[in-house]
């Protein structure tokens, strides 16, 4: 199993115990504010299966994120193929954390480790990140990672921005 450790976090495979906090996160309107509709428990479970299958098949997807010191599950972070609706192709970095984990630098810490994994282990030439034009918090993380805006596009009437970091 592929795991990625940072000084404070463990990015790991998904466990059955992750479903309840993951479903709760995805039923939180603030967490989902820039991600689309809330997810049902069944949709949350399906997303876990999709992420875990990607890790096993490709060596990457979205890993569960836990705090090393406490073992607390706080969300997900990872790499995945860019959605077909986007005007760019490639691999995207992303994260989604519970509100209780916001403001601690966890997204940036996980993303730095993921950039290293993507460039060094997977040999990716570039890594993209996509969010809504209004999601300034995620854009701030992207800028801290050294990513730069590449392009914008509309998806389902919502303006999106693509950031890019070359190897």
Automatic annotation (TrEMBL):
- Per UniProt, the enzyme's principal EC class comes to transferase
Query: Which positions are tagged coiled coil?
Result: none
Keywords, in A-Z order: Acyltransferase, Transferase
* Superkingdom of origin organism: Bacteria
Q: Where is the N-acetyltransferase domain?
A: 9-167
Q: Show the GO MF annotations.
A: acyltransferase activity
What EC numbers are recorded for this enzyme? 2.3.-.-
Stated name of the protein: GNAT family N-acetyltransferase
